[in-house]
Amino acid sequence: MSRKDEEQLRRLAIGIDGFLCAVLAVVLLLVFGPATGGGLVLCLGGVVLCLFLRRQSRKPIVQREARQRAQSAWSDSVTKNSIARSLERLRAVASELESWHTPVTFARGLTQEEIAELQLALPAELPEDAVEFLTQCSAIEGPDVQAGYSIGGRACFAPARSADRWPGHLKVGDAEAPLTVIGDDGITNRFLLALGATNPVVKWDHESGGVVVVAESFQGFLATVAKDWEHYLARDGGHDYLAG
Fold first, then answer.
1. H helices then E strands: how many in the chain?
2. CA distance linking residue 144 with residue 42, whole number of Å
3. C-alpha–C-alpha distance, residues 185 and 169, integer Å
4. Which of 16, 44, 99, 104 has a CA that sits 20 to 30 A from residue 139's CA?
5. Tell me: the pLDDT tens digits for 17-50?
6. If residue 12 lies in a helix (H) or strand (E), which one and from where to where?
7. Intra-chain end-to-end CA distance of the chain, in Å
């Protein structure tokens, strides 16, 4: 049933209930009117009817506000759920690889104090999805997954250094956004996160020196890594992996 149909049914129900209330008020007036003068009963009936109709008319507003609050809460949790889901997928693959693979390691999450200290050293604020990752798991090491995947850990989420070979900034729109390393692929290519109005992830090629966007956000990057690992577990040699 569509929302329009539900609204029409609601209005019909209000009309029927209102009519019944009006009939009840008339009956009360006819039965008790001669003894009471009718005025008091009629007045009370009208008050009851008005209160009932007002309550019914408020229902869709209250329900709509409740839906909006629920949708807002869901929207706020999307990032957390997506990061958590990607980590769940990565751990599931890691458990399947244990019998024939170098173990994949997942480091503990950082405390709020540790994240605050890390943020102070950066030239711009980390996006929420990257912070959520650091809260749940500050580093992932999968050295034998495809060419190798290393995300987070030492030397990552840190300000650029003059000795770095990869670029320190990325043009995002009309502005230059600082870049911070978030991982590598085991053969010295780097994954860099832009800290700007938007937060794309780029891959820096150690041979050509060029960069290419591989995800529109850290969340998208982690989901792509999870997809890579699932293809690797399936021994899919034709998949286009981030690593390598």
1. 5, 8
2. 85
3. 20
4. 99
5. 555 555 555 555 566 555 555 555 554 555 455 5
6. helix 3-36
7. 52
